[in-house]
Amino acid sequence: MGRAGEGVMSELAGFAGTLQATGFSGYNQLCKGGAIREAACLAHLRRKIFDVHDSQPTELSTTGHGRYPGDLPDRGRDAGLPPAERLAARRRRTRPWSARCDDSSRARARVCRAMPMSRMPSPKAPNDGARSIASTMASSSPTT
Predict the structure, then answer these.
(1) Are 45 and 73 spatial neighbours (Cβ–Cβ below 8 Å)?
(2) CB–CB of 139/117 below 8 Å?
(3) What is the spatial distance between Cα 91 and Cα 39, in angstroms, rounded to a whole number?
(4) Which CA distances in Å does 20 have to 24, 39, 40, 44, 53?
(5) Half-sphere exposure of residue 30, counting CA atoms within 13 Å on the CB side?
(6) Which helix (H) or strand (E) covers residue 38, if one does?
(7) Residue 34: DSSP 8-state
(8) How far is CA 57 from CA 42, 54, 106, in A?
(9) pLDDT truncated to tens, each residue of the chain (144 aa)?
(10) Domain boundaries, the chain
(11) Which candidate in 4, 7, 130, 140 could, as Cys together with 60 as Cys, close a disulfide (CB 3.0–4.6 Å)?
(12) Is pTM beyond 0.70 here?
């Protein structure tokens, strides 16, 4: 299967439901119709946040970098638990972080509507979320 997306289209033709995706752009076309909902991977979002912060620190990337709990990608600690308990443990760790990020972006949008860095771009396709966040972080004011 190539990186252009043709293989993805044929492989998942007729599929409807939730697809855990990696941010691979080949899924964009597949998710456009609404039959498929992407379950984005937090590890990929984390990588985007850290990559942007490492290459061009901004106020927004510093905030995202500092708020990301280091234990989210640690799947090993839950490996021996039954699926329902594993899910509950991961939710306990991710929900507070997710809520803080959501609250922060809503507050930024209310306070600074006129400033371009205050608005997260609206993803054109479901898989564009992490790229939108990374793009916003890269375009906000550099920290000194």
Answers:
(1) no
(2) yes
(3) 14
(4) 11, 5, 6, 12, 25
(5) 27
(6) strand 36-40
(7) S
(8) 20, 6, 21
(9) 555 667 777 888 888 888 877 666 777 777 778 888 777 776 777 777 778 778 888 777 777 666 666 655 565 778 888 989 988 888 887 787 777 766 666 665 555 554 444 344 444 444 444 555 555 544 554 544
(10) 41-139
(11) 140
(12) no
Report the DSSP beta bridge partners of residue 142.
Answer: 58
| Position 31, amino acid | C
* Per-residue tokens: 67: 């708020």
- For residue 110, CA distances in Å to 9, 59, 92, 105 come to 39, 17, 28, 9
Residue 129 tokens, joined: 């979320």
Q: Which of 47, 53, 60 is nearest to 116 (CA)?
A: 60
Q: Which tokens belong to 94?
A: 């991710």
The count of residues in the chain is 144
Cross-strand pairs, 20: 39
The 3-state secondary structure of 71-119, one letter per residue: CCCCCHHHCCCCHHHHHHHHHHHHHHHHHHHHHHHHHHHHHCCCCHHHC
Side-chain half-sphere CA neighbours of 82 within 13 A: 2
Q: CB of 23 within 8 A of CB of 130?
A: yes
